[in-house]
Structures are given as C-alpha cells and as structure tokens.
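Review form for a predicted model. The reviewer records the input and the model, then writes brief findings.
Reviewer: anonymous (R2)
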Amino acid sequence: MNESIPPRMTLTPTKNTHPDFIALTRALDEQLHKRYGKNQADYDQYNKIAPIDTALIGHVGKIPLACGCFKPLDARTIEIKRMYVRKEFRRNGFSMILLKALEEWGARLGHRIARLETGKGQPEAIGLYTKAGYLPIENYGPYKNLPNSLCMEKRILPQDE
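Model under review:
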C-alpha cells in the first residue's frame, strides 16, 4: 500500500470482542508465532485480555487494517496491548496514529502513565515506541521473569495540558 500519498485511516472505538479486532489480533498472533516459534507460547497467556471497552480499529475505507487497546493497571497507569497493522499497510504512519489515539484516550480517562511490553526481537515495535517517547523500564508484572520482554513507559497527559 505504501504509495507516495498514504491513504487516510479512520479509527473506530470498540470493544476487544469486535469481530474485526479478533481477526486482526489473530493475524498478530500468527506473526508472533512465525517470528518467535515455540518461545511465543510463554507469552500467549498474557495476550488474552478480558473483555474491555477501550479498543480501537483502524480502517481505510471499509478495510480493517489496524488495532490496539489498553487496560488499566491502576488508577494512574494503562497498559497498551495488541498493537497491530496489517503488513500491506505498514510504513504509512498508522501505528503512530493508533498509539497516540490510545494514549490520548487513556489520558482523557484520567490516566497519566502508559506502559507496554514488546519483544526484544521486534525492532520495528521498539523503534515505534522509542520514537513516541517511551523509555525502557524494569520488567513488570507477568513479564518480570521473561528474558525476551522489553517493558517501556511514558507519561501521558490530556491534549489540553
């Protein structure tokens, strides 16, 4: 898809139980299994999220191409989860648009810190998060003893602050 003028993506707030969100995260899981092989099994249990209302699906026209969500870790902190852009739509800035929208949504709900976990074997994701202002932190929660995990965080504020 990477043409000289990128297509416009629209974001739709939804639940993580929406069929398009489920289809996109299945594609994400397939990609992770190809990348990490049997080691991905250690992480699969942490990629299952109870139903939440803080998910976004990105569309170009009627094509669902991107997804992401967040869940509260505590009153101040959200965890960004399940970020994915279909391969043929990458390199158009959609992942940054999606990430910023999730951060802004979390900030509007009163959260001030966004955390996330990504794999050390995902340089594209690490690059995105670094560019967006995330800094490495000590592995937290379920990722404490998973050596392939890279945990990151950043401060988020509502747009008017």
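Findings: The longest strand covers residues 63-72.
Further findings: DSSP finds four helices and seven strands in the chain.
Recommendation: see findings above.
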